[in-house]
Amino acid sequence: MKIEIINKIKNPFLNREEMIVEIVNESAPTIDSIIEAVGKDKELTVVKKVDSNFGVNKFSSEVFVYDSKESREKVETIPKKVKKKMEEERKKAEEEAKKKEATPDSGSEASEDTSKEELSNGESGDGVNEKVKEVKEEVKE
Question: How many structural domains compose the chain?
Answer without folding.
Answer: 2
